[in-house]
Structure formats: structure tokens, C-alpha cells
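Hi C.,

You asked whether I'd gotten around to modeling the 224-residue construct. I have! Everything is below, sequence then structure, no commentary in between.
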Amino acid sequence: MVTLIIDGTKVQAEEGSTILEVARFYGFEIPTLCYHEDLTPYGACRLCMVEVKDGRRTRLVASCLYPIKDGIEVKINSDKVVKRRKLLLELMIARCPNSKTLQDLASKIGLEKVRFKMENKDCILCGLCIRMCAEQMSGGAIGFVGRGQKREVITPFRESSDICRNCGACMYICPIVTLQCRGTKSPGDLCNSCLIITPQCLERYEQVMCTLESCGKCVQKEEK
């Protein structure tokens, strides 16, 4: 067994486990986008980064890939970690502004403004669809091509794939296209409303379903 410290709490886990696995087992919450417990860790989104102190050395690492070591100290929400997560999420929202998954994460980590130009790519290059197709569906019908800004997910030679069974697993696991944000602001804005525990319109309207799907009354009220 390996002994380590997570946010001041001493924990034990089996050797070979990752920081993310151990943290979640003990109830510590670490945000992720490209991680899925049934797929090979990829470390693309970097939202799961934590601050690790190993001896005198302190650095930021992707918790989904970093194996635990005896005696290390892990900080999940240090100022350095939160600042980096916000920047990464800001870049992702600028790329895919209408994703409810990203909008929810923005609310959760306290991101209130996006300083970059908004696009509409519908892909954050997390690789979940590729790994799902290859590892769970035994297909391998899609993959990455290009580098940097030209990187994208496509079928070989951009042609219809004979391997693809049209199962829809790639769409099912995608964190971007599964849900579109239904916030009251224009597309691309951070509404920060999806995670409000007490609906702001509760005193005026008895309906509380606006946390799931907007009834439109809030919008009508603002327009008057």
C-alpha cells in the first residue's frame, strides 16, 4: 500500500493507482473532460491537473496519468491549480461556446468571463470518441489528423468508413455535442445559471424546472 496526503488528509491506496482514481475513491472532486473510467487515460484536457509536492519539488501534473508515490502531497484546488483550470476552460469555451457541459463547469469553478474570440468548432479534441470507438466498440473508424489549430477528428481520407457501424457511441460519450446550453444570454456568453441551487424566478413563478430546461418566462421578463 502507498501512503500519500491529499488536501491535508492522509490516505492509502494500492500501488499503480493514479491520483485521480485515489482522490475520487476518497470523495475528493477533481474536474475532468477527457477522462472516462472505462477508457485509457489520455490527459488531453488537463482540467484534472493538481499540484504535487514530491520532496522539495512542486509541480502541476495531470492527475489521470500521474501514478501515486509514497509520501507525496497533493493539493487539488490550490490557487495555482484553479488559475490554470480557469484559463484552460476559457480556451475551450471560446472554441465551443454553446456546450452546456462547459458552461456548467464554468459555473462550478467560478469562471465568469471569456477573453478570447468565440468560435463554434463543436470539438475540444479530448479524444473520447476515438478511444470509445477503438476500445469499447472495436471499430477504430475515426482518428486524429493534423497538428495544432488544424488538428481534427475525421474518418480515414475523409471518406465514408466501411468500419463504422453507425452505433452512435462517439456521439453518446462526447462532452460537447450531447447537450447545448439553453441559457438566457446570447450564444457564447457565460450565463452561469445552470447550477443555481435556488431558482431566481421562484418568487414570481412557481415552476422550478428552469434549472433543467428554460420555460422562456425569464427571457420574456427581461425583454419587457
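If it helps when you're writing up: The first strand starts at residue 2 and ends at 6.

Thanks,
B.
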